[in-house]
Please model this.
Amino acid sequence: MIQEYELHDMVEMKKPHACQTNSWEIIRMGMDIRIRCNHCGQMVLMPRREFEKKMKKITVKAEQN
Model:
């Protein structure tokens, strides 16, 4: 089941980053997804399919305006 994620949602990935955190923010969406580590600020760009496979859950939903 694919979760409904949106821009600026905070997500938890299955494997921790090198800085030992799993918390990321979605900062770009399209064919590729760009996420930023909430601990060290590192940015990663990955194809949508790979992102959906590696994402564990949505921790904080972005505020709706």
